[in-house]
Amino acid sequence: MIRAIKVTLDQATDAKLGRLAAFLSEYRAAVNFYIRSLWINRGKLDAKTLNRYKAGSLSYRYRSVALKQALQIVIATRKSARETGFKAKCPVLRGKAELSSLVATVERGRGSFDFIIKISSLVAGRRIILPIKSHARLNHWLSQPGAVLKNAVFLGEDSACLVVEVPTPEPKTIGETMGIDTGYRKLFVDSDGVQYGKRIKELCENIRRSKPGGEGKRKAISTRNDYINQTCKELPWGRLAVLKVEDLRGLKQRTQQNDKSNKRSRKQMAPWSYRLAITRIEQLAQENRVLLGFVDPANTSRECPACGTVAKENRRGEVFRCVSCNHTDDADTVGAVNILARPVVNWADSMVPLSVES
Predict the structure, then answer these.
(1) Does residue 271 have a pLDDT over 70?
(2) Which SS3 state, helix, strand or coil, does residue 163 take?
């Protein structure tokens, strides 16, 4: 498994950071040129597509790296548009440059510096050398058996992400199986009835009310992301062997198709990020040797776990009351219980499920 660990560049001098900023400006210009070009005319990682960009002073290697990152961004954007059903707009790279071993190296440091990032600059023969201080999280991953620090880096003006590859551990064979329901009002509710992330609706509303493109919106998104990350860590990973979740890919598309008249519902759903939550759960499942399985999400909160009756009328907001047997519970808890009972239709990362003992 691959982990990207963030480190700061506060050990670098102002002169080095100035050269880095100039390089990143030109690199992003190249990536965004390729994105716009690929958005209109398809291309691939070859000389013909590479030679579309003739401006600036980036080397052939840097243009290759820029084209590769542009291709990844375009492919990911179009894939996301297909899954959500929203019309995609041409993306723009404003974040970190993704530099491979073609143009960057990461080495052990000397003296007071733990690591050194070396990248080619805009001037031939003058590399930018950025000293790095390590921290507990990076040391944790580097101390794992078989850990390898890759010659690749995600680089911004004031921070970088070092890439560590660690062998994926074998899944547990002893532990509990749990189902979790993912939602907008409560981020998770597990099949034991425990609720996690009750502030998620409030944080999503903050994003929705923020001015597009402003600093306030950026901070609101960052706060939501940090909250999702922290909430995912609160799940009882230590006692789990299998975790079941709904396969909610395409949720926004279904909301748009089934509720075209309810514009308020679509606006509410826009800041909610199932993709971010499930990506973090996938990472934590790997780290904690937990098998992650996806189940069919149809009617999980409308099916009575007591008598099996499926009816739209069973759910009224956050309350579940069966119209047949009068079984009553929190609607999200009912959803999690039904998720636990359903068979897995797809295992994360194509992991083959083992025989798990409770």
Answers:
(1) no
(2) strand
